[in-house]
Write a structure and sequence with these properties.
By secondary structure, this protein is mainly alpha-helical. The protein is 72% helix and 9% strand.
Length: 159
């Protein structure tokens, strides 16, 4: 990999914002070189620039990452596979609703403050909340991938 590719790789594989100096060290380039490529990558929309206690930092742009995931799903999975994954997510959410006797994610969040819950019960609910939130994101990506496939097929028929 050349310097630009190394900087891009390091920056796009982080889950927390990192400054140019840290990225430069990881990519084995100078800080100025890292800053140049980071700014270019941010200008392209792949990175988000954020201000933290460590100064100007870079993190993968959430929207760009989400849209890439949608595209990958649409290109690599059939509608049947995507639909089955949607069903599995729905089934899992339904099982949480039954297990915690709630109708929504918000209701589960509010239940964390119940006085009758043990610490271990709160911890289990917090883990379920994280999984539920993740499932919502995946569900949205799957739904968009199905729509994208449908739109592409319609365009192909018109052409």
């Amino acid at each position: 990999m050349d310097a630009a590719d190394r900087v891009r790789h390091v920056a796009l594989t982080r889950t927390t914002p990192q400054n140019a100096g840290w990225i430069a060290e990881e990519a084995d380039v100078s800080r100025d070189t890292a800053a140049k490529y980071l700014d270019r990558t941010a200008d392209q929309g792949d990175l988000e620039v954020v201000e933290t206690a460590d100064g100007t930092c870079y993190k993968p742009d959430d929207i760009t990452q989400f849209l890439r995931k949608v595209r990958t799903l649409a290109e690599e999975q059939s509608v049947d596979v995507l639909t089955n994954e949607l069903r599995e997510i729905g089934d899992e959410i339904d099982s949480w609703k039954a297990a915690y006797d709630v109708e929504s994610l918000e209701e589960l969040r509010r239940s964390i403050g119940r006085e009758d819950l043990l610490s271990s019960d709160r911890h289990g609910r917090l883990e379920t909340i994280e999984e539920w939130e993740y499932n919502i994101q995946v569900r949205e990506a799957l739904q968009l991938a199905i729509s994208l496939q449908s739109s592409v097929r319609k365009l192909e028929l018109i052409s």
